Amino acid sequence: MKKILLQLDTEEHPSPFDAIVAQDAGVDVLLSHGNVEREDARALAQDAFFTRGPDDLKNTAIWVGGKHVATGEEIFAEVQKAFFGPFKVSVMLDSNGCNTTAATTIARIAKSYDLKGKRAVVLGLGSVGLRSAVLLQNEGSEVVVVALPADLFGDDRPYRRPRGLDSAEKLGLDTREPKDRSELEATLDDAQVVLAAGPAGVEVLREDFWSKHPSLELLADYNAADPLGLEGTEATDDLADYDGKLVLGALAIGGPKMKVHKTCIRRMFESNDKVFDTDTVYEVAKELV
């Protein structure tokens, strides 16, 4: 029986990236749907799993993706509400690569560096940064998440409550909202770990600051596009040593991230009851990196 993956994407055009990785992971048939909203999810899921009997449902799975992470989370929840009795299939959420990227990065760090008891600062309130913060906290770190101030973007944009701040507070994370670069840098006092989780093209920390910082031991950057989030580093840095400070670049995590991504897809077809959320993906990442 063929392995069928139902791709539910929040974008008008379902992600070619996710589609190609699914094919490379061994999916036989990919059914891609774009512009999916929360209210669409239950009917689409049931249309998929009612076609097969309970014994065959392990050959059907549902992938939730797209750039709108909050909507993806709603769809992910609605898909699971569609299940009843033996009528369920495995499902995975990875909108904008949020779970596989964060899980692989923190697993890579934890493999080589003891995070327990360390003060970790996540600079940026995007979905990857917030998931990374939760995983760091679960590893025993004292975590602070920091909104990026307007002057990092090189303009005089009017104040708007940073997107992601509400989500961070709902997760119970310690949040900071610095007014400018100097206040942002002050949040790193006594920190050993820092993650630059800002958007592409935004330089979060300057080399003359982080390279001389007395307490920093490990830095990671999620941005692979120039300029990097960490000035003076390379996207290919794989815990490279910069005068005693370890640096993990975005491209160094790309290969392991893809391995985690494909493995999760394959495992969805091992049974019909797997739910790949952040924690589940992290367990896979810890096995593989």
Mean pLDDT: 96
Rg (CA only) = 20 Å
How far apart lie the N and C ends?
32 Å
Principal-axis shape equals elongated
CATH topology of the largest domain: Rossmann fold
Tell me the domain tally. 2
Strand order of the largest sheet: 7-6-5-8-9-11-10
Residues in helix, %: 25-40%
Q: Count of helices?
A: 10
Full CATH superfamily name of the largest domain: NAD(P)-binding Rossmann-like Domain
Secondary structural class: alpha/beta
Number of strands: 12
Low-confidence stretches: none
Structure description:
The chain is of the alpha/beta class and 289 residues long. The chain has two domains: 4-97 and 256-288, Rossmann fold, CATH 3.40.50.10280; 100-253, Rossmann fold. Helices cover 37% and strands 18% of the residues. It is built from ten helices and twelve strands. The strands form two sheets. A seven-stranded mixed sheet has the order 7-6-5-8-9-11-10. Strands 2-1-3-4-12 form a five-stranded parallel sheet, sandwiched between helices. A hairpin with a 2-residue loop joins strand 10 and strand 11 (245-248). Helix 2 crosses helix 3 and helix 9 packs across helix 10 (278-288). The protein is elongated and about 60 Å long. The model has no long low-confidence stretch (mean pLDDT 96).
